[in-house]
Amino acid sequence: MTHRTKKYIALGMVALLAPLMLIGKVRASDHADTPDIAANPGTDITDVYMFPSPTNADNIVLVMNVHPLIGSGEGTTVGFDPNVLYQFKIDNNGDGVEDKVIQAKFTGAGAAQTVSISGPVRPSMTGKDSVQETPLAVHGTLNAPFSPKSGMTVFAGGREDPFFFDLEQFLNIFPDRATPLTGTPVADPNTPKQSSWRAPGVAKDFLSTGKYNVLSIVVELPKRSLQ
User: Highest taxon of the source (predicted)?
Assistant: First the structure.
């Protein structure tokens, strides 16, 4: 299993007064790890990325992936949860309190959804409490890049899941760890447990071979706008 690094960026989302917030340097990934989160895939953050723009040295790219395990060919038909406020929270001084926030809010259902972007702006509320800030004037649609304001480009829609996970070997090591995703263990629980991950080149990427997708929120903007 490959772990992703989320550095100096906090993210959160608000759904029915139950916010999730990650602050600081975190290594993690989540794919339907509990029955509750499997039943509400729109609230399931799989990975978050932050990296320099490959086309503009003055820009930075933020990516939030949610709603894992979308089947092959279904990426353009699934929408985000309209009851969720998806947020990138940026802490610039290491005090664990966000200084800037970028928010995405979706309206409608399925592929016909529209998306509004707020920020980057100093948030009206911090920590576990959040409120949608004033949206930018230009809204977008799913699976099509748009520019909410000058210098910012946003994409929201289906993409291939980039997370690498050898599920078969995981269940060989932990045969009792079946989830709502797997249903029953791959391995016979009466056989001896394996003790280690398979070597590179031998491990099997379950998400790739199963052609599973996620919903991605991608924001590219000038670095200076986050400072």
Answer: Bacteria
* Sequence ranges of the domains in the chain: 5-162+213-226, 166-204
pTM of whole model > 0.70?
yes
pLDDT of the chain, 227 residues: tens digit per residue: 333 433 334 444 333 222 333 334 445 566 766 777 778 888 899 999 999 999 999 999 999 999 998 988 888 889 999 999 999 999 999 999 999 999 999 999 988 999 999 999 999 999 988 999 999 999 999 999 999 999 999 999 999 988 787 878 877 787 766 655 555 554 555 655 667 888 888 888 777 877 889 999 999 999 999 98
